[in-house]
Amino acid sequence: MITSTGWIIITAILAASSCALVGTFLVLRKMSLMGDAISHAVLPGIVLAFLLTASRNTFPMLIGAGIFGLFTVWLTEELSKKGRIFHDASMGIVFTTLFAIGVIIISLFAANVDIDQECVLYGEIAYVPWDLWVWRGTNMGPRPVWILSMVLVINISFITLMYKELKTYSFSPQLAATLGLPVGLIHYGLMGTVSFTTIASFESVGAILVVALLIVPPATAYLLTDRLHRLLLLAVLFGITSAVGGYYMALWINSSIAGAIAVVNGMQFALVFILAPRYGLLGRKLAGRRVNKYEPGKYEPGLISHPEPEDLR
Fold first, then answer.
1. Rounded to whole angstroms, how far apart are CA atoms 229 and 235?
2. What is the CA radius of gyration of the chain?
3. Nearest residue to 212 (alpha-carbon basis) of 46, 39, 91, 69
4. Would you say residue 242 has pLDDT above 90?
5. What pTM value is reported for the model?
6. Does the pLDDT at position 114 exceed 60?
7. Which of 268, 288, 292 is nearest to 278 (CA)?
8. Which of the residue ranges 54-63, 154-163, 208-217 has the most confident prediction, judged by mean pLDDT?
9. Separation of alpha carbons 234 and 142, rounded Å
10. Does an H or E element contain 138, and which?
11. Which stretch of DSSP H or E encloses residue 240?
């Protein structure tokens, strides 16, 4: 019999693992802020799904979020290409506008639809054990666990089936196009999985923690390895340890579970950023001293940088 604590930890682990897998490719493509943009810009899709169905049915929510997630990516790229606007600026314009539209719709129709913007922003993973799925009179366990399990399976399947394509795309979209790979399909497929992962995690952990789970574990793992398969595994591992550690930290200091998980994520990154043997501050400093010792005047200490994604093997 799984306890309430067990269900909460399982939910956090599933959300962290799902986010870490797709977030790895966002980090490699230097699109980390796109995860932030999508996680906020899908709000109108969620609201419209509620308005059209008047229920908490997951499938319409995923469809609505997926549509607006892909729309966010498309509109951002169009503004950047045709509007003489830098990519980061167009991203900021799109996601803040769409998020504001979602908030306005909620405020106008909240009396008729069971939705709460605080739930979308912050989530409340502590309530997961009581959000049950009952099928034919049988208690199947918390609904978020099933939803996030499905999303994790989808993400693993997508990455497994498209591993070589995603690897080449992360190396260079231009090379992928030259090799005849469907770059557009790969790109929007990845953005679609990010959108679905985001909406599946919304109700449990909220938009703010989703952003942390998408970016911080892969960024932490990126400081430790140059190989893609190890990067994926380490990102998931850091996500899991932050989920478990964050839960018990929240119990210890009597605080928000989602907030504690985000803090543990940051602590892990800070530790690795300082102590990573090759790409941490200390590792780079020591490497710089060794270079100066054996080849004086050729290099400056501390300038040994992390390889670009193009160097991943």
1. 10
2. 21
3. 39
4. yes
5. 0.83
6. no
7. 288
8. 154-163
9. 28
10. strand 138-142
11. helix 228-253
Enclosing H/E stretch for 287: helix 281-294
Q: How far apart are CA 226 and CA 310, in angstroms?
A: 10
Best CA proximity match to 193, nearest among 313, 30, 20: 20
* Of 301 and 55, the one with more pLDDT: 55
Tens of pLDDT, residue by residue over 247-287, are 999 999 988 888 899 999 999 999 999 988 888 788 777 76
DSSP secondary structure letter of residue 256: -
Residue 177: CB atoms within 10 Å: 14
Q: Pick from 231, 207, 209: which is nearest to 220 by CA?
A: 231
- Which has more confidence, 313 or 76? 76
- Among 200, 185, 120, 187, residue whose Cα is nearest residue 154: 200
State the number of CA atoms in the 13 A half-sphere of 233 facing the CB: 7
Cβ distance 86 to 80 under 8 Å? yes
Nearest to 217, CA basis, from 200, 198, 237, 201:
237
- CATH number for the domain running over 4-214: 1.10.3470.10
Task: List Cβ neighbours of 123 (8 Å cut-off, separation of 6 or more).
Answer: 201, 202, 203, 204, 205, 206, 207, 209, 258
Structure tokens at 66: 């997926």
